[in-house]
Structure formats: C-alpha cells, structure tokens
C-alpha cells in the first residue's frame, strides 16, 4: 500500500512535528523574508548548502509520562520541559548547556566545567535555562547561536540542532525501552557531551599544529594547521568518529553511575535503556553513530551503486542493526560467552532483549544491578556479564551531488517498511510536494499500513489510547534530511 491515502489530520497523536526549508541565497540586510516556511516550521538562512531541508515527526504507542523524574528530579524538572515537543525550530544563543548535574560522575563535571560556565545549584540552573542557557566559551562549532528542536513520543526522544554559521547539523533519535529515563538522560546530556569532546579535538589539533607546523582541512573544509600532514583528511575524520564514541561511553558511565545511586529507591532503573542514533553533518561529511536497531538510510544514485533500470534512487543503509537477528552480532555474542549456554533464549539476550547494544540496561551489564531486582524480574544465571554492549558502529560518508536525502528512523518505522520502501515513499512525496513534510508523511503511511495489518481503519487504530496501541505498532520517530549538494533537490526546496 505504498501510495496509500494520507491522513489529513491525525490529531494530537503525532506528538512531534517540526521542520524547515533552507534558502541557499543570503542578502546583506539580514532580512529573512526570503526564507521558506515548512509547516510547522521557521525560516532558515545559511551561507552553504550541505542540506536544504529537514523534517522530523514522531508517533506515540507507549503510555508514559511526558518527563520522567530522574537525577532526583533535576533533569526532568528543570531541563527537559524547555525542550519538550516544540512545534518548530527555535533560535537560541550559543547552545544549551547541561554540564552541572550534581548526580553525574565527578569526572564528567570536571571535564565539562572547562567548556562552559554552569550554575552551581538547581535554582540557578532553572534560571539559566529560562534565558536559553548561554555559554561563555568557544565551542567546536564556534557558533554564536544555533537553532534547536526536539520532543518526546512515548519512550522515544528526538533532537535536532543546526548551526547556520558553520553549516553543521546534529540529529539524534533515542529509542528508549522499559521506560523513558535513559532516553531522557541522553536528550539532556549527549549533545553537550559531544560538543565537549569535539571542542577538545579542536583544541588538540590547534595545539599540535603549532608544534608540527603542518596543515589540515577541518570538518568545514577550511585549510588549517594540522599535526598529520601525510593523511590529514583520513586522520581528522577518524578523530571525529573517536570523539563521538568517547562521548557515548561517557554518557553510559554517567547514566549507570546515576542508576547505582538511585536503584535502592527505584530498582526499575536497572532495566531501563535506550538505543542511540546520531547523525552529525559537518560540511560535506556525514558522521553516523548507532548502538541498537535504529537506522540511517541514504537515498542516492551514486556511480558506485547499481541503479535500477527505471532510474529510481537506491537505498544504502549507513548503520548496523545490533540485534540477535543479525548473524554477525549473534555469533559474536555467543563467542563472548562460551560458558553460558543460555546467552540467547527465545531469540533474545538472556531471554530479555533483542538488541545486543544499547545504553543502560545495567542489570545485563553488572551483577550488582541484577541483584537489585526482585523475584522473576531478576535474570537467573548471569554468568559472565556484560551481555549488552554500548560500543557503537561508526561511519562517515562524504556527501556528493548523487546523494539526495537521508532518513533516520527508530526501529518502529522498519517494522512496517524496508529501506527501499522508505526511500520510494520519501522520494515520491518530495517530488509532488517540495515544501511538504516528508517525515510526517512517512508516519501517516505507517498508520495506514499498521491499521490494515490489524484489520482496522486508520481512524479506529488512532482512537486506541497509547499503551493499548503498542500491540499494533511501536513508538516511531523519523527525521528526513534533504541534502543540498544535489542541485535538483536544492532548486525544488527554494522558492523561485
């Protein structure tokens, strides 16, 4: 039912919907009247054209609180409401800073204290947050302001941060499970942690260049001093990927540290986790990190791709699915636990999870956290933890004029559509509606298919309350990035 009828008004069920079109032409007046609005969205002006359009949407299936109470309420009460489910991008000075959370590990507080000026108490944090949480330090993006959007749907969280000055875009989908705490934690900390590690990389390159007197091309294509003159491009890209991995490892350590502090009062925290998908577009380079079963799919007609006879775009998956259904993941998991004959039970890790990599889920990583659970909730025969890894898959793709768009989605999207179907749906939609909202359109098509599979009309399915509707589909979050390197796409996305 690829060309199914679109839902014109899904009501309040689509919890998050945001997006904008970019105007590739700028003027000296600073007037943004030439910008293009994507409903519901705002105008965006940029000097470069790595991407021309962005839309995001999410659909709830699980019943959960809008903000869970973690970090003694500091994260949920003081930070998340300001970022929860905006209907469009908002321009803010610098970027939000979440570096002063008293329950995080001292190493994280210490490292981030060098990055930004942080309030010393929850009340000061709330006051600073209300004024967009200004940062006094130079960041890796070196931007005086960014645009930010995000929100929550069920146990999913979505974020997008754009630096217009530096032609950079950060997008992330956090697919939580067994609760929202891990996804909330990532939404409140990971972007800033990544900024911190990239800022350290920027400082390191500048320092070493003064010693080695070499040159390098930074992530935005600028020629700058560099320490490795033999392979500057490869070396720099690898360092960015390493920074992303370090940031996720830091987030894991700090989340588990928080869990250990609170698990006596909230033993459920040890079972809560989240898959992680991050796409970082810096100039023409797209860096992708994933841990879990969310996906990033590129639509391209590149020369290295065998094109269809009808000229359709090809779907290229940029991520690895970390589940027991993936043969390489399953083999590696069994190899890591040769003495445990119950590593995989019923198609799940220790009979609990299908994903093999995720943030959190401490009870499958530490015996002490498993012991915090009572009765049947506790995993029996936890012989050789950890059974779940947070080590991500990483890749970098250099955007070319052959690449049209990238779709980021939580696994709920791919429960109903394969990669080729997703690309075909988005491509056909943006050809017909260049100023439309492709992410929301994908969710509308998913509802139609889910209803058809369940034997319902779409109205009947959407009338089922969240929680009960989880029987028919998962929480679903989608981000569509239309790449501006492709001239045809840029032209279609700009009012002439």
Automatic annotation (TrEMBL):
One Gene Ontology biological process: signal transduction
GO molecular function: protein serine/threonine phosphatase activity
A Pfam family assignment: PP2C
Domain called PPM-type phosphatase: residue spans: 140-483
PANTHER family recorded: PROTEIN PHOSPHATASE 2C, PROTEIN PHOSPHATASE 2C 40-RELATED
This protein's name: PPM-type phosphatase domain-containing protein
Organism: Nicotiana tabacum
């Amino acid at each position: 039912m690829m060309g199914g009828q679109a839902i014109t008004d899904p009501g309040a069920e689509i919890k998050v919907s945001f997006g904008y079109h970019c105007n590739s032409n700028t003027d000296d007046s600073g007037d943004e009247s030439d910008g293009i609005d994507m409903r519901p969205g705002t105008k965006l002006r940029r000097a470069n054209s790595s991407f021309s359009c962005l839309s995001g949407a999410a659909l709830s299936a699980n019943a959960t609180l809008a903000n869970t109470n973690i970090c003694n309420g500091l994260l949920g009460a003081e930070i998340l409401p300001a970022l929860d489910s905006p209907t469009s991008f908002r321009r803010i000075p610098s970027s939000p800073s979440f570096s002063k959370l008293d329950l995080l590990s001292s190493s994280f507080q210490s490292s981030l204290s060098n990055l930004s000026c942080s309030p010393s108490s929850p009340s000061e944090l709330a006051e600073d947050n209300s004024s967009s949480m200004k940062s006094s330090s130079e960041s890796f993006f070196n931007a005086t302001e960014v645009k930010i959007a995000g929100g929550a749907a069920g146990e999913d969280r979505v974020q997008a941060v754009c630096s217009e000055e530096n032609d950079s875009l950060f997008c992330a989908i956090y697919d939580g499970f067994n609760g929202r705490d891990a996804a909330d934690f990532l939404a409140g900390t990971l972007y800033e942690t990544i900024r911190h590690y990239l800022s350290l990389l920027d400082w390191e390159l500048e320092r070493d260049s003064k010693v080695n007197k070499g040159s390098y091309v930074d992530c935005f294509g600028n020629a700058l001093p560099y320490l490795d003159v033999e392979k500057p491009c490869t070396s720099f890209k690898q360092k960015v990927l390493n920074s992303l991995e370090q940031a996720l490892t830091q987030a894991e350590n700090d989340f588990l540290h928080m869990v250990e502090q609170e698990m006596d009062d909230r033993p459920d925290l040890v079972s809560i986790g989240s898959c992680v998908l991050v796409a970082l577009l810096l100039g023409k380079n797209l860096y992708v990190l994933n841990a879990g079963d969310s996906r990033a799919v590129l639509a391209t007609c590149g020369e290295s791709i065998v094109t269809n006879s009808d000229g359709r775009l090809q779907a290229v998956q940029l991520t690895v699915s970390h589940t027991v259904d993936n043969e390489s993941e399953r083999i590696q998991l069994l190899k890591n636990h040769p003495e445990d004959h119950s590593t995989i039970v019923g198609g799940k890790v220790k009979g609990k999870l299908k994903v093999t990599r995720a943030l959190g889920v401490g009870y499958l990583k530490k015996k002490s956290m498993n012991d915090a659970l009572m009765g049947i909730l506790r995993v029996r025969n936890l012989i050789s933890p950890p059974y779940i890894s947070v080590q991500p898959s990483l890749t970098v793709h250099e955007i070319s004029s052959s690449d049209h768009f990238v779709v980021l989605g939580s696994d709920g999207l791919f429960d109903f559509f394969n990669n080729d179907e997703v690309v075909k749906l988005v491509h056909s939609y943006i050809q017909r509606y260049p100023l439309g909202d492709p992410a929301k359109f994908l969710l509308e098509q998913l509802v139609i298919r889910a209803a058809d599979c369940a034997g319902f009309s779409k109205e009947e399915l959407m009338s089922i309350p969240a929680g009960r509707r989880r029987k028919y589909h998962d929480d679903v979050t989608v981000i569509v990035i239309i790449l501006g390197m492709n001239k045809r796409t840029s032209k279609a996305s700009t009012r002439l």
